[in-house]
Amino acid sequence: MATYLVRRLMLGCVTLVAITIVVYALARAMPGNPLTAQLGEDPSRKVSAADYERMQRAYGLDKSWAEGYLQWAGNLLRGDLGRSITRKQPVTTLIGERLGPTLLVSGTAFLLIWTLAIPLGLYASARSGTADERGVSLVLYALYSFPTFVAALFLQIMFSVWSKGTVWELPLFGMADLPPDAPLGSRIIDVARHMILPVACQTYVSLAYDTRFIRATMAEAVRQDYIRTARAKGAGPWRVLFRHAFRNTLIPLVTLLGLSLPSLVGGSIIIEQIFTWPGMGRLFFESIRERDYPTVMGLTLMFSVLTLLGQLLADLLYCAVDPRVSVE
Amino acid sequence: MMAAHGFWIEAWRRYRRRPLAMAALGFVGFLMAVAAFAPAIAGTKPVLCRYKGRLYAPCLAYVDRRFEPAIFAKDKFRGTYPKNLAEKDPESWAIWPLFFQDPYRAVRADEWPGRPENPAMDKGIPSRSHPFGTDQAGVDVLAKMVHGTTVALLVGFVSMGIAGTIGILIGALGGYFGGWIDAVTSRVTEIVMCIPTLVLILAIVAIIEKPTIWHTMAIIGFTGWTGIARLTRGEFLRLKGAEYVTAARAAGAGPLRIMLRHILPNALAPILVPITFGIAAAILVESGLSFLGFGAPPPSASWGSILNGARSNLAMWWLVVFPGIAIFLTVLAYNLVGEGLQEATDPRLREARK
Fold it and tell me: Which of B20, B125, B190 to mutate to test the interface with A (most CBs of A within 10 A)?
């Protein structure tokens, strides 16, 4: 077990090095650099060639991408993710600022998804084959195919344009309208109102996917011999479903939970972009557009570590829960 | 080979029993027909016309600009056919597209005798003459969508063609040979899997100087093969121990022949399922990119780019509703086809049905 863990962790490090090299090379290969991306937008801030060169040197942009990467990796080993070039702040501070808003939306969505998906999935498998189950399944399937950006625009039109002036009107953009010195109660309500649409968008796709997943694993479990045994010994249908079938589907469910770790912290680029939600996904999108290499690299590193950790966690949980599976 | 043949006939019989899957297949067929006949369905260039004694098909210009007959440029038609044809050759006749609207520009006043100018901005609400409305610039949305069908279909097939080829190749090599080859291919798969797809795509789109729709398709293909590779690897690992593979090896077949002729046909059914789901995902990614403004630049008529126009003006709901429903239905159709395929070819699910 220990050797397996060490080997997995070492392989993970190799993968991380490869990922960061690829992303750094890609980022540097994009036309322009943080200075041109920033200065290009504002003609009043034209700088002289000498100044430009001095700034380039200051940010290490005059070096080749290989040198730049080595410098970045060296700083990383010393626990330093670097400073954002366009925002003049340490990358860790930036990530810390954006983590809260993203967790607010994705955490709420995550809770909603699992409190709804499990009962819905169980309901669908209990009523399998009946008309109402087919209806529910079809609706979930349709939701799963519905693009989030279309849903987001629909919701924006419904709750802002069509319900202008009614109680249904919801804010379209951002996270809060009230100043930070407003009373706490009204500020909470304000943020909650801003959250409704992004949370709804983030919830429905995963809800549909997870419910279908639960139903599929339940369908697999119901076919096993021990279910027939349970039925034969006289257990009622709900008891069979909960005590015998559902408990055995917990393993793949736990795996799915592990794999959703990166998206929980990373947020959704498209949803945060549409609702201008100040979270991680939007930071990623903006930092790519601004060619802000340190931020791009910091976020990439974080996503990759989380993805690899999620996979490792899923594999380990699998072995821990199911004695038939060995780490080899 | 006979057995595999019978397998697909059997699978098709089971597939046909699922009405939703059949409806989805029918919808994909409908989209293909729309894409193939797009220039004849909506356009401002005659499908066929007789001009100065010769027959031309100017509508082919919608397929590729170079197909526009040179004589019309020489006679200064400037893209407006109805009046010019009548003025410059009274003898001429033309067969027009079903719907006289252009996907790339607004139709001007009196371009078609007696037809007013296309409305622009929020006056473009759907009406009799514009069933799906017009966009900010006055371009008819229905015409744009008809021509955008080609993009939606091509994106799915081209990018999944690329992704399928790479995924099957990498998965087959890793699964069949094992050892260090497997270690390398698995690592490469893991690396591509860990980089957030949208980031990879945004970076590559930025690097390409003049991105076209073909670049977008290639990028989606080159980033979307990891799931297929993993599944192929698993299938090859499972099948390489099969008796018929040992028999083929004993008969002197080389590794390439064994992989292509013996294992792949038997592994194809489970691999086709993620490819079909991948087509749906590719369409989503492409329209998402166009929506964010990172797709192919105009005048490519992607459904996602119509949506992008609605972002700045939410009152123009028709720019969201119609292309949104089109993307949704197409994605849903491919997902239903994939699910039908899965249920028709998976032996375990088949047994359960009895």
Answer: B190
Contact B307 A149 (CB under 8 A): yes
pLDDT digits (tens, 9 = 90+) for B238-272: 888 888 888 988 888 888 888 888 888 888 888 88
Q: How far apart are CA A311 and CA A260, in angstroms?
A: 10
Chain CA centroid to CA A205, Å: 13
Contacts of A149 in chain B (CB under 8 A): 287-288, 291, 307
Q: At what angle do helices B213-223 and B264-292 cross, to 10 degrees?
A: 130
Of A218-232, A250-264, B168-182, which gets the smallest average pLDDT? A250-264
Neighbours of B99 (CB within 10 A): 17
Please list, residue by residue across B169-207, b when 16 or more beta carbons sit within 10 angstroms of its beta carbon and e when fewer do. bbbbbbbbeeeeebeebbebbbbbbbbbbbbbbbbbbbb
Identify the sign of the CA torsion B311, B316, B317, B319. Answer: negative
Nearest CA-CA partner of B25 in B330, B351, B291: B330
CB A150 within 8 A of CB B307: yes
H or E element at residue A272: helix A269-274
- Rounded to 5°, angle at Cα A84 from A79 and A86: 175
Measuring CA to CA, how many Å separate A184 from each of A103, A181, A188, A193, A194?
20, 8, 6, 14, 15
* Each residue's pLDDT tens digit, B308-344: 888 888 888 888 899 999 999 999 999 889 888 888 8
The reported pTM is 0.87
Contacts of A23 in chain B (CB under 8 A): 195, 199, 203
Chain A contact for B291, CB < 8 A?
yes
Q: B244 vs A285, B239, B247, CA distance in Å?
A: 51, 9, 5
Ordered by where they begin, the domains of chain B are 2-37+143-352 (1.10.3720.10), 40-126 (no CATH)
